[in-house]
Input
Amino acid sequence: MELSDISDAMDAAGFKVFGGLTSTTAGLEAGGTLILVGNTGVDMWPVFCDEKPDTTDPLDTWTRERITAITDSLHERFSVPIEALFPFDGPPYHPFQRWALTSGNAHPSPIGPLIHTEFGLWHGYRAALHVDADLALPEPSTSASPCDDCTEKPCLVACPVEAFASGHLNVAACTSHLAGDHGEACFKAGCLARRACPIGTDVAYSEPQARFHMRAFFDAHR
Ligand code: B12
Ligand code: SF4
Ligand code: SF4
Output
């Protein structure tokens, strides 16, 4: 099995391979390779909408089913054990952000979500595939964080209730605003702070997808 076999299988469902790391680097006791899979832009959204299950957490349910079907078929084809780990299983949660930082293409941002050198803040992690084989991985990117050259940092001034003033998201301030008369702009944008970032605007989520994620966050934490 090669990394491109996984990428091709994931592409068909609108997912994207963001990179990989050895399981030692990932801090896993078993050997092998850990491949990070996620979404960016608008590729995953229509596939999800077509197949959306009628559950309370449809994206998580669909992700588990879709990714497991893909890993089962890869296992059948290559006879290599492969297990999917999910970001929503927990607590304790798998350290997806640490894995992404270690894999080299993502950097911390001042507002919490990691910034990808190409996709900006408009990406999410959907699974990490633990493959029981030493797959050849591309060299990790050495490019600097886009935030280093972003002198104005518009993400930090776009929030109407200054929810990042303390250095991390004030969830109560955010959800109170979302619940009020002026919260609609945040639902529509999928967070005004995230929308203010100039990186990866060509892969920004569509309004329905941004609204879906914002609504899921609001419903879980209001
Ligand atoms: C719990 C959780 C939350 C909580 C608390 C967040 C927190 N920072 O603790 C709440 C409800 C507030 C939250 C909110 C959101 N979340 Co959230 N959340 C998670 C979840 C499920 C677990 C996080 C965790 O506790 N991990 C456990 C620790 C041990 O793992 P970790 O990787 O080591 O994480 C730590 C480090 O990354 C560290 N860290 C962050 N930056 C840096 C930088 C450096 C240099 C270092 C060393 C460490 C470090 O902080 C993390 C927490 O301790 C993750 C999924 C996951 N499994 O990672 C999503 C996740 C982090 N959330 C995500 C998102 C997108 C959001 C929201 C934007 C919601 C939305 N609309 O989609 C908001 C906004 C968050 C914000 N502005 O900060 C994405 C981020 C994607 C990205 N681009 O990075 C994740 C990865 C889910 C996903 N499927 O992609 N979230
Ligand atoms: S607006 Fe600038 S500082 Fe903020 S996340 Fe985007 S690049 Fe980084
Ligand atoms: S969703 Fe709106 S209120 Fe919440 S952090 Fe983003 S900009 Fe601020």
